[in-house]
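Memo to structure team: turn this sequence into structure tokens by end of day. - J.P.
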Amino acid sequence: MKYRALNMLLIPLIAFLGYATLQAFAGATTKPKAVSKKGVGITTYNKEAEVWEKQVEDLKVSWHYTWGYLNPGKEPQGVQFIPMVFSNKWQADTLDAKLEEITASVKEHSQAILLGFNEPDSDEQSNVSVELALKAWPTLMKTGAKLGSPACVNAEGEWMRQFMQQAKEKKLRVDFVAVHWYGQPDVKQFITKLVRIHELYDKPIWITEFAIGDWKAKTPAENRYSPQVVQQFMKETLPKLNQIAFIERYAWFPSVPKSAALTSSSLFNEDGSLTELGKIYAKSP
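Reply from structure team:
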């Protein structure tokens, strides 16, 4: 009777311990929740701090960049600031002198990442030659950061092809390719282009700017793409970007309603509140 009573106590205890062990094992093997790929580029130098900070917060993004390398200092909780060296041309001989400052900004974050030059193949942006970009690249490498390529207007264009080829020959480190895209609302065409770029350079991709653009429109009213068309494009595209392994991060370009080409891609109304498109972006994982 004594042993029977003991067994009656041990059996439930063993069963409980077995269940608890299985639960602990299941918890240990469960994959951690993936970090959101979603980000946004919003400048801070020409806005009141609380305006840009609220906009970043409203979009519920995991990362934010400003096209500059200095941390704005008031990122919403849970949002990672990603520095960028917009150009080395406007800094001329001062890029090496800025290295300590750039490195300090990079090291403020647990995942040290640095974005390269912005649209060097455009006269209206950084407008940097391939030769000058390659000459400056070793300085960026000294930061120890994970380095994004220059973000060209056309990631498949001659400038980018030359840079990536010569960087490979010179053994310069490029960890991922930054892509800009402002095409028509064709999901298949967009994804196909991303696949081509990935296959061309065999690197992960960050889409640091993308939106739907009508570059023939001279006024917002003339824009061929209605807000509803752009909203549908976003609804179909974002889940695909979240599923594609080689797409590490993406950032919709927020634009402004008064932009003739990008009015329907605007994430914010004139008063700073979210547009319907902005609400869709905010609700996306």
